[in-house]
Amino acid sequence: MDAQEALARRLQRKEMVEKQKQEIAAAAAATGGSVLNVAALLASGTQVTPQIAMAAQIAALQAKALAETGIAVPSYYNPAAVNPVKFAEQEKKRKMLWQGKKEGDKSQSAEIWEKLNFGNKDQNVKFRKLMGIKSEDEAGCSSVDEESYKTLKQQEEVFRNLDAQYEMARSQTHTQRGMGLGFTSSMRGMDTV
């Protein structure tokens, strides 16, 4: 008898689950979409399980993201694992990244690189080729005005200072080996005593 009772209980559960699915489908059709309305299910007397409530929340979040951004989460993604708002933001960033740049749209750093002058036309042309700057005729033929002359002088001064600092550091590392670990010249004099 126990086996027959267990079989009967399983059949009852299966029928109850099928009935709930039919009621959920009817409620979804009544609300006019795939978004499950938990309040409508409760009002109809259907027992709402945590899975049904979670599915309703996920569907509501997806509908909200679709309404705000116009980007829907593809069906091959697990709706419980993907946040539709973050997915929409990521898709927008991806579209912005892969769309072509408009004419005349240069960044500030690109303008700085184009204005850079090494003082020699050949070096300027070589640098622009290496950097991939295509407007070589505009920048290559530019005359040395006061601003570029000032930046050239500043660059030379910076390079001179760096070179002097390098030489000073190199001479200290070669001439003062063993110093700095508590051993000074006064300590060496005490070794002989």
UniProtKB/TrEMBL annotation:
Ranges annotated as spanning the membrane: none
Domain Small acidic protein-like: 113-182
Similarity comment text for this entry: Belongs to the RSRC2 family.
PANTHER family in alphabetical order: ARGININE_SERINE-RICH COILED-COIL PROTEIN 2 (PTHR22426)
Protein name (database record): Arginine/serine-rich coiled-coil protein 2
Organism: Propithecus coquereli
